[in-house]
Structures are given as structure tokens and as C-alpha cells.
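INTERNAL AUDIT FORM
Audit reference: QA-55
Scope: verify that the stored structure record matches its stored sequence.
Auditor: D.O.
Record contents follow.
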Amino acid sequence: MDWNLYRYFLAVATEGSLSAAARHLVVSQPTVGRQITELEEKLGVRLFHRASHGYSLTEAGRSIFEKIQRLSEDLQDIEHEISGLDQDLAGRIRITATEGFGSYWLTSRLAKLHRLYPQIQFDLLLDVEVLDVGKREADIAIRLTNPQSENMVGRKAGFVGFGCYISEAYENRYGCPGNVGDLSQHRFVDWSHQSAGFVLGRAISGYAGGHRSVLRTDTVAAQIEAVKAGFGLMIAPHYLARQATGTRHILVELDEQVELWVLTHKDLQKTPRVRVVLDFLFSEIRADQPYLQYGLPEKT
């Protein structure tokens, strides 16, 4: 069913002529005439009597007019309902972030946001390789570095700081590197192969080479436990590693900061509920920079 043909049918039936229907639809009169002819040919019946003073419905035309009119009204109601959903501060939003950031920082902030806007629900999708907002796999992405995609828009909200961490268990067994040059003689806890492109994986490869990775895993929780158990050193976010008992920060010259971006698809940026979440996350990240950059105590 080509609904566009029935729009022309309704316009001619309501307006009474091709010229009036053309003005109503803001198209040319020949266009209206062609669409009516095509619809009649598809249905195999005459829908209108043609006369010099205008068009009037045939018996076949009258038999479908009210049904098509009701269908048009139903479609308009659906459009208004869907449009209203986008205008309301309600609905479900899919947010993607890295596992560590999502678990240890983002979840509690979403709980705070939900108290402010209880009609907004969330799907929180956590992985090192975050989903692609540009392909509409998620509505909002929190990413380390800007992906520079033409389909995505957003703002740099702040930075996440990283450093090298060692545990008492490891130091007691293998000692502590005195400088960056010593790292090639030490063991590392690393990200899994699937996460090879992640910033921490690249850092470890640059410092010590992949052959010094004694354990690879794809969750930061497992990495931290491995470091605490003495498996190896770890390049980790300060806000996570500083909370781990029995670990300490070493080799300050290795510290680096990575940009943290909050992004959405360009088609969603003016949707009110998405806008509210974007602004909230941006504000929370900005306010929590001492914690996210340096692992200092969180704001109260």
C-alpha cells in the first residue's frame, strides 16, 4: 500500500478538484492528476467522476473514503504520540561507557539523575570497546578521546588521569622499578587482545612490550585484583587504583591524562530527555575532576 497515493485521494475527495487539492498539498495540478490515475489503475476501479466543475466520488470512491479518512487520522495520532515522547522527559536511554568508568563512577550518578527525573530509564552498556553511537547502537557514549565522527556531536567534559601502580605483594617478590628503563624487566597485568586498541593497552606495550604481560583480562575489576595478588604492575586510572588496598602509585613521570567526551548522535541532540542527560553528565564530570584526574576524595 502506497500511502502517498491515498493522501492525494483524500485531498481531491475533500477539496473537490485537482486544482484545489494541488494548492492544499502544495504541489502542481498535473502531479495530483497523475497520482489519482495511478491509484485507480492499481485498484482497477474509477474513484472519481470527472466534470468541468470538479471531481466527485464514484460509488467505489465513497466506499473507501471514510475508511481512508479514519486511517489518516490514526496515522496523525501516532505521529503526535511519537513526537510527544521525544518532547517529554521520559523514556529509555541507552548509554555506553567503559566497564570501569560505568561500574565505579557512572552508575551512582545515574541513580542521582533518576531521582530528579524518575520517568527516564537507562540501559547501561559497558565494555572497553564502547558501542557506536554513530550507527545508533546507543543514544549516549562516554568515551576516552573524541572519535571525530560526522554523525556524532558532544563536548569534552574533562580528563581521566592514569598512572602506574604496584602492590606490596609484587614488590616483596620482584622489587620496584626505579625508573622507566627498568619496566622492561617487570611483569604487567594487561588488557585482553580484543581490547588491544585501548589507551592502557597501548601504554603497556610502549613501556614493556606485550611479552611482559603475565595476565590479560577484559575487566578492570579483575585487573585490580590481579595487581593486589602480586601478578604484575598495572597502568590504571587513579580514581580506581588509589582505592585498591595494598597498592601504591609509582613512577610519576609515566602519568598521563586522557580526554573524556560525552557524545550523542546528531539526530538526538535536541531530544529533551537526551539533552537533560547530556547536560547532567557533563556537569557531574566537570565537578568531579579532582577525583577523576588524580584520585582525590570525591566531592560531597
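Auditor finding: record pair retrieved intact. The first helix runs from residue 3 to 15.
Action required: none
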